[in-house]
Amino acid sequence: MAGNKYNKDFAMAKRNFLWRVVDSILLLTVSGMLLVVIIQVVGRIISKSVPWSEELTRYLFLWTVNIGMAVGMRYADHASVNVIYLLLPKTKIVRRIHLSIYATSCVVFFALLTYWNIGMTFRQFNSGEMSPALELPMFLVSLPLFVCDILAAVGLIQSAFFDKSTRERIVMLGQNESLERLEGGSI
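Predicted structure:
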């Protein structure tokens, strides 16, 4: 029995470590973007152009958005369409079916995105394409696309099947607000 608890604690620690790393990368990309924009503004004030700043800001923004999307999936913070679910009886089986449809459709979506984005990243790697101002290999720019698709799927699976409080949020996502709007006729 004690070994089983140890295994669960170890698995939880690994999951928490992964998301701490992801949160740290997100902090670095947002901080880097802020710093580059400040450099760009100061450069404009003193009439010294910084030609690479706009490009680096765009690439950091791409990383930030994709990492943020993965974190959002981990905490079930994305919008959902649940009008049909609201019309169904709130039984345990309906909740399980709702969770299964939600998780399956999201994982399939992220699997398709991963497949497409891996192909794009490898094409950029093989072509040797470089960014104009920074002369970075373009595959580094598109790398977060498939990495974050994988992270989003992992986060979704963790939240839907291994985190009870987040699982409840997924099943009940927006139920009270949507029900009020449905009854009030604004949906």
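Summary: The CA atoms of residues 83 and 164 lie 23 Å apart.
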